TrEMBL record:
Coiled coil: none annotated. Keywords: Nucleotidyltransferase, Transferase. InterPro entries: Cupin_2 (IPR013096), Mannose-6P_isomerase_type2 (IPR051161), NTP_transferase_dom (IPR005835), Nucleotide-diphossugar_trans (IPR029044), RmlC-like_jellyroll (IPR014710), RmlC_Cupin_sf (IPR011051). The keyword Nucleotidyltransferase applies. It comes from Paenibacillus herberti. This is Mannose-1-phosphate guanylyltransferase. Residues 4-272 form the Nucleotidyl transferase domain. One of its GO terms (biological process) is GDP-mannose biosynthetic process. One of its GO terms (molecular function) is mannose-1-phosphate guanylyltransferase (GTP) activity. Residues 365-428 form the Cupin type-2 domain. Pfam families: Cupin_2, NTP_transferase.
């Protein structure tokens, strides 16, 4: 059995901590058993490993998230990379092509797909593992997992059993789906045995390949990656699940929660305050999450979330935070990014009438990590080292750098840096705004740079 975790998202529902480059699953706001801060993706990948899926699990993600995933999970995490952001059907088709053409998975093998960020108990993955047996025992095309509802929620979709069809050893035949019903309708659905749809389903790889063949979609991962932008952007639920004739489902009665909004996420946070600031003792159910150096003080307010980051500040009543994505549209660049080697924070971004721009960033590189050997085709940079020590190579010339050094890097100049201790520098980039991302990288690792780029 293969496990594919879908990692995507636009980064709006947990703004201002999340943005287009750092979706909710990467926010380190949860705690592991040792009390260390972890993200949702780190938590679930640890559970996948504990459940015995480490050798058969993959993460399907967009190219913009690969550095962040590898930074949080390690360089060896198996990734299936989407060239552009599409919907879940193209993503799963690409995963199927990868498993078939690259991993040589047998078409008869079961593939289970689930979101990368479920907040569940470890035994949830025992239920995931059972889907293989459900497919083989029932002959169903698809097998789903539904969560037994604890209340008539209007926020979730429901899996509705087929009336008059007996359950088969823990699974039942699906009669239909209902998306976000009213509370009264949800009560009626629950009385009929309906389950919350948690977005988990399984199929034999050959089933998906047959669908792709009927649509003229290539089985070759390389070819499909090349053609990816031409695929229709549509969800797997609409394109496959709701059109399938034979769908089985199994119930999961353990703890499950969607941490996609501030009010649900803060329910799983052990501390009411993260970052610099104060929440007074007379505040009830109020949380502060502050990623800035500016102190924030909250006095006498209850049921409030205050979140601050370089991208902005949110002050909201927790119930109202579910509407957040309807109000976020500032059109600004992500002001904070995590990278596999550290982080980048935008300090200032100025555009001028002549078409040039000046972008100022604070860049942090963790000790022992490095930025690849690269050049800016249309921008020049000035780096001012403000913390730590490192090694710097510019057009083959090697030098050691430390706090206080100023480095001028003309455009089209190859350069790379490695931190021997935690290193920070201020980068001021100057050049045309529309050519900001014209970067070419020759080597990505420091070992390659040392072997190929250093002058004798």
């Amino acid at each position: 059995m293969k496990l594919v975790l879908l990692s995507g998202g636009s980064g709006k529902r947990l703004w201002p901590l999340s943005n287009d480059l750092r979706s909710k699953q990467f926010l380190k706001v949860l705690e592991d058993d040792e009390g260390s801060r972890v993200s949702m993706v780190q938590r679930v990948w640890g559970q996948v490993t504990e459940a015995g899926f480490a050798g058969s699990g993959y993460i399907a993600t967009g190219s913009s998230q690969t550095e962040l995933i590898r930074g949080q999970l390690g360089a060896d995490v198996p990734l299936i990379i989407e060239p552009t952001r599409r919907d879940t059907f193209p993503a799963i088709a690409l995963a199927a092509a990868y498993l078939f053409s690259v991993e040589k998975v047998d078409p008869d093998e079961t593939v289970a797909v689930l979101p990368v960020d479920p907040y569940v108990e470890e035994r949830f993955f025992t239920t995931v593992a059972s889907l293989d047996g459900v497919l083989r025992e029932t002959g169903a095309d698809l097998a789903l997992i539904g969560v037994k509802p604890t209340y008539p929620s209007e926020k979730y979709g429901y899996i509705v059993p087929e009336e008059g069809v007996e359950a088969h050893e823990g699974s039942f035949q699906v009669g239909g789906f209902r998306e976000k019903p009213s509370e009264q309708a949800a009560e009626e659905l629950i009385a009929r045995g309906a389950l919350w749809n948690c977005g988990v389903f399984a199929f034999r790889l050959g089933y998906m390949l047959n669908i792709m063949e009927a649509k003229g979609i290539s089985f070759s991962y390389e070819q499909l990656s090349s053609d990816y932008s031409s695929l229709e952007s549509i969800s797997f639920d609409y394109e496959v699940v709701e059109r399938a004739n034979n769908v089985a489902a199994v119930a999961y009665d353990g703890y499950w929660k969607d941490l996609g909004t501030w009010n649900t996420l803060t329910e799983e946070m052990k501390d009411t305050r993260m970052g610099r600031g104060i929440v007074s003792d007379d505040c009830v159910n109020t949380h502060l999450v502050n990623e800035t150096d500016i102190p924030v003080t909250i006095l006498g307010l209850s049921n409030i979330i205050v979140a601050a980051s370089p991208d902005g500040i949110l002050v909201a009543e927790k119930g109202a935070s579910t509407k957040l994505k309807d109000f976020i549209g500032y059109g600004q660049r992500p002001m904070y990014e995590e990278r596999r080697w550290g982080w980048v924070r935008v300090l200032d971004d100025r555009a001028y009438e002549d078409g040039t721009s000046v972008l100022t960033k604070r860049v942090g590189i963790e000790g022992g990590k490095s930025i690849g050997y690269r050049l800016q085709q249309h921008r020049e940079e000035v780096w001012t080292v403000v913390k730590g020590e490192g090694e710097f190579i510019c057009n083959g010339t090697y030098m050691k750098v430390r706090a206080g050094n100023v480095l001028h890097i003309p455009m089209k100049t190859l350069h790379g840096v490695r931190a021997t201790s935690d290193l920070e520098f201020i980068s001021v980039q100057t050049g045309p705004r529309h050519l900001e991302n014209s970067i070419m990288e020759l080597y990505s690792s420091w070992e390659e740079i040392e072997q190929n780029c250093m002058r004798a």
